[in-house]
Structure formats: C-alpha cells, structure tokens
Specification:
Blueprint (H helix, E strand, L loop, with lengths): L7 H13 L6 E6 L3 E11 L5 E9 L2 H11 L4 H11 L4 H8 L3 H15 L4 H10 L3
Antiparallel strand pairs: 1-2, 2-3
Length: 135
Amino acid sequence: MVDWQLPKPIQAICAKLLANRTNTNNSLLVPIPNKGYITIQASVLMTADLQQQIVIILNEASPKEMLTFLLTAYHLTPREKDVITEIMKGIPTKDIAHNLGISSYTVQDHLKLIFQKVDVRDGNELIWKLFTRFN
C-alpha cells in the first residue's frame, strides 16, 4: 500500500477555504523550480446529492497575478499600488495625479515611498525589477 499525502500548498489552500467558508480570494501563487509559477485556486462545489466537495484548479500564473503577489510582498498600500498600476501603463505623473484625484506632489511622495520599499532609484528601475522578479 502506498502512503501519500496532498502537497503542502494544496493542503494550505483547502484549509484556508474551509476556515473562511467563502469562495472569495482562495488562490495561492506557488513557484515551480526552473519552470515558473502556478496559481492554485480552491472552491466548494455542491454535488448532485448535495455533498460538498472541494475543487482544486491549477493554472500557469498570469503576469497580473504575479504582479499582485509581488506588490503585496513589498507591503505597498492600496494607493501605492494604484500609482504603480498607472506608472506601468506609461502614464506621466501629472496625468496620474489627475486620474487618481490627487496632487502631483502627492504622487511624487507615493513614488518616493514605493522606491524605498522596492529598493530602486527611479520608475524605470521599478518597472524593470517588477518585470524581471519572476524570471
């Protein structure tokens, strides 16, 4: 008889799902050595005979999922994430300020804090670091 166990990331996502009792945000980003990243998603499925089952879905992680994970790992505030999203679209500071309803000086203050947290000197280095972090 073979004694086997679910991999730890799958156990973790299932435990999170059962603890929260919701189907929202039950995903996990997992590195695969020398291959990249996958997302593991878990949801509760009701069978025809009203039994609850957990469904696990594995997908290659999208750039957006990887970026979201990375921004969270750097402990950026929601507003700092908004600024980075605009920066990555190539939008100038003045337009970022207009789009977010804040002053250009506030955008600059956010950028200074972002640069400190991510340990970069400017916007170009920030984008390079975010795009190459997972390669």
